[in-house]
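Structural prep section.
Before we set up the soaks we want a predicted structure of the protein with beta-D-glucopyranose in place, mainly to decide which crystallisation condition to try first. Input record follows.
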Amino acid sequence: MKKLCALVLAGIMLIALAAGCSGGDGGVKTYKVGVSIYKYDDNFMTLYRQEIESYFKTLETDTVKYNVTMMDGKGDMVEQTNQVENFIAQKVDVMIINLVQSSSAATITDKAKAANIPVVYINREPSADDMNGWDKISYVGADAKQSGTYQGEIIRDLADNGDINGDGVVSYVMLVGDPENTDAQYRTEYSIKALTDAGIAVEKLFEQRGDWDTAKGQELAANALAQFGGQIDVIFANNDGMAMGAIQAIKTAGRTVGQDIYLVGVDAIPEAVDAIAAGDMTGTVLNDHIGQSHTAVDAAVRYMSSESVDKYLWVNYQKVQ
Ligand code: BGC
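Run finished without errors. Recording the tokens verbatim:
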């Protein structure tokens, strides 16, 4: 009799355990989330992805858990497509995707749609056409035009309007992120537009892609400084990662920010905020990774609860000087 009781008890425990694991009716519901980041080795996206993970944790309760699988896209679209296929095979409930190539959004959406798994795209905006590909896809980002405008305004509002060598024209160097990305396109365009809209004369000396990367930013800034020397008034970097590299190049060239050159970035990563305080950088624009990651996670949670989600969810930038 004792043996029988023990067996029955063990059986009940097994059933309870199985129910819990399957996320079914055992009281605890576990949602599966697949996240793929375009590349882990990116200063800004590192802050962003860490916040996605910690924010999901804060939303857990005794009865709701989030099983988040996060993958490194390694800057390789083929690799990222495989990751998405694996998420689909694992039957995740929702995906959060930071595309390696924004132009591949349609391919990813088609796969997600076939499996009926909603997608929250983040940081790299798919085209408007691609965003109309399905009603269960959303984009969370910040308006890149605003960040470019703010960069230009930081320079415009200086006492000399950015013309630090006083020759009557703001001669600039542009360190471009990834030209396929709207963040890079609009920051490049709107930073300068803020100056020309104010009637300030500008001259482009140098514009090259640095892929958002510190080492490349340093190399490009060093080349520009070697080529154009004292002609350069301002170095615009599409992000702080590249601006960090430019700081090194500026120092090596014997130049001093605020005295004979200006440098402005975007993101307000902690290193950039420190650099501004130390006088090594003129300003930056806060790219709110906390606001964006929380908005993306909230959108994912709404999709998982079958609630409606807006197609576009925008988070504001802020000037930091
Ligand atoms: C950020 C960059 C980052 C890029 C990645 C941009 O919004 O400003 O720092 O490298 O996103 O796509």
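Observations: Residues 38, 42, 44-45, 123-124, 177, 181, 183, 212, 239, 241, 266-267, 287 surround beta-D-glucopyranose (CB under 6 Å).
Flagged for discussion at group meeting.
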